[in-house]
Structures are given as structure tokens and as C-alpha cells.
Amino acid sequence: MTATKEKFFKPEKINARDKAQTTDSAARGIIEAEVIARDKKTEKLKALRLERDAAEGRTGEPAPKARRPAKKTATR
After folding, report:
1. Nearest-angstrom CA–CA distance, 28 and 20
2. What percent of the chain is helix, strand and coil (3-state, nearest 5)?
3. Half-sphere CA count of 74, side-chain side, radius 13 A
């Protein structure tokens, strides 16, 4: 195997616009994959939560929050 210049160096320069487009498409692909994975995880967790709530006999409505008594302000 003979070492030649073509094997070690690229014969032409890559256009900045092409390089930016390649980077942009790779980034968009990664972001899209993350969104899909997050949506799948959310759906799975929601199904598990609904299943747990049904097993415990809860309804879909949250319990009312307890109110705190108002603090008295100090007078001088």
C-alpha cells in the first residue's frame, strides 16, 4: 500500500454553506430524536400513573390544597 497525498488529505475544500447545512441537518436530526424519545417516555409515564391511580381508586381530579392561616404582622 503506497501512501499518497489523496489518501491523507481531502482533494477539495468543503464550502462553508455546505458544512453549515450538514451541521444543521445533523443537529435537527438529534433534536427530533430527543423529542420523540421524550414523548414516548411521557406517554409511558402517564399510562403508568393512570394505572396506579385506578388501582388506588383515585379519580382524575387532584385533591384540594389545604389553606394556610394568614400570618399576623407585627405592629410597632
Report:
1. 12
2. 60, 0, 40
3. 1
